UniProtKB/TrEMBL annotation:
One of its GO terms (cellular component) is cytoplasm. Residues 43-324 form the Dihydroorotate dehydrogenase catalytic domain. FMN binds at residues 60-64, 84, 137, 170, 207, 235, 256, 285, 306-307. It catalyses: (S)-dihydroorotate + a quinone = orotate + a quinol. This is Dihydroorotate dehydrogenase (quinone). Monomer. It holds the Pfam family DHO_dh. PROSITE patterns: DHODEHASE_1. Binds 1 FMN per subunit.
Length: 345
């Protein structure tokens, strides 16, 4: 057991989850937490013109306002997604809004896009010195009406479009009323067109919910193909409560181990149905290196973690990457691309 699990975690887990997050984040922002990097030549790849040293990134929601961009490479990540950022600053939902489910290795959150707003985030980014590729996840402000959603995403994008390696259009958080309805083809295309009006050249991804059925997923895929989007991120948290050992009966999005099978199923469906050039980022319940290997074998080009990182701490990333390399070497797979999708062929 490393320092985090034996010493830091027992202290942090005694605190209220959001206070623990703020404290941990303070240490990260000040460059006081590090993990031994374990990059390896098998893990390098270039996708949509961006060079990634490893396929494992930090998912959206941890660094919502891009306050720690200069430090994520010290924790061994291959990339990070900041946000969700909204056009205007917003405080999010009333506390408590983050809950631990330790027996299930899961979290429930209803943060509600608390962030400093696109303008301040653009300043945070321009005064930091990121050493790794980062994406920017944008979402709808709580106060923007459904009919004005495309304009609202556009406003956030206007402040941020010159930064970042890619943009994630978040239409899948269960914590902003009406947001997931924007996953329908019409509203989604409207958002994409509004962003392209500002800048047609930036790589765009759509982040989908694990709660969409196959028909709804297929409509998202149609929009992605029609608009020639760079890729998809699968998945956000789930509003469902399946397979929990202890359900705290809190509303919000569930993440971590109970999400694993559904997120893997959604990813597999996307891999089978999308044009081969659509880049897929797998996220949801990746708990270790075996899960990482499995996710790439089911079609992911890149992967992200959030909840397992909270439970396992900084050693998760190097351990998972080392395990991934071991499994790839065992099968004589010489690149991430060679592993990608082998479970579905
Ligand atoms: C506390 C918390 C806050 C989150 N905030 C966001 C967010 O702002 N935007 C977003 O797209 N996803 C957000 N997510 C979802 C994660 O990015 C990820 O899709 C989800 O947690 C599944 O991955 P995991 O099982 O590895 O945690 C959040 C997740 C958690 C636990």
């Amino acid at each position: 057991m490393g320092f985090y699990e034996s010493a830091a975690k027992p202290l942090l887990f005694r605190l209220d989850p959001e206070r623990a997050h703020s404290l941990g984040f303070w240490f990260i922002r000040h460059g006081l937490v590090r993990a031994r990097p374990s990059y390896h030549r098998l893990l390098r790849q270039t996708l949509f013109g961006v060079y990634f040293q490893s396929p494992l990134g930090l998912a959206a929601g941890f660094d919502k306002s891009a306050q720690a961009l200069a430090h994520w490479h010290q924790l061994g990540f291959g990339f990070v997604e900041v946000g969700t950022v909204t056009a205007q600053p917003q405080p999010g939902n009333p506390k408590p809004r983050l809950f631990r489910l330790p027996r299930d290795q899961a979290l429930i959150n209803r943060m509600g896009f608390n962030n400093e707003g696109a303008h301040q985030v653009s300043r945070n980014i321009s005064t930091s010195n990121p050493q790794l590729p980062y994406g920017i996840n944008i979402g709808k402000s709580r106060t923007a009406p459904f009919e004005q959603a495309a304009k609202d995403y556009q406003e956030a994008f206007r402040s941020l479009h010159s930064f970042g390696a890619y943009f994630a259009i978040n239409v899948s958080s269960p914590n902003t009323p009406g947001l997931t309805e924007l996953q329908e083809k019409g509203p989604l295309l409207e958002i994409i067109h509004a962003l392209r009006e500002v800048n047609p050249d930036r790589p765009l991804f759509v982040k989908v919910s694990p709660d969409l059925d196959t028909a709804a997923l297929d409509r998202v895929i149609e929009a992605v193909h029609e608009a020639n989007l760079t890729g998809l991120i699968a998945t956000n948290t789930t509003a469902l409560r399946e397979g929990l050992r202890r359900d705290p009966r809190e509303t919000g999005g569930l993440s971590g181990r109970p999400l694993k099978h559904r997120a893997l199923d959604v990813l597999s469906h996307l891999y089978k149905s999308c044009n081969p050039n659509v880049v897929l980022i797998g996220v949801g319940g990746i708990m270790d290196g075996d899960d990482l290997y499995e996710r790439i074998a089911h079609g992911a080009n890149l992967c992200q973690v959030y909840t397992s990182w909270v439970y396992r701490g900084p050693s998760l990333v190097p351990l998972a990457l080392r395990r991934l390399v071991t499994l790839m070497e065992r099968k004589n797979l010489r690149s991430i691309d060679a592993l990608r999708g082998i479970a579905l062929r």
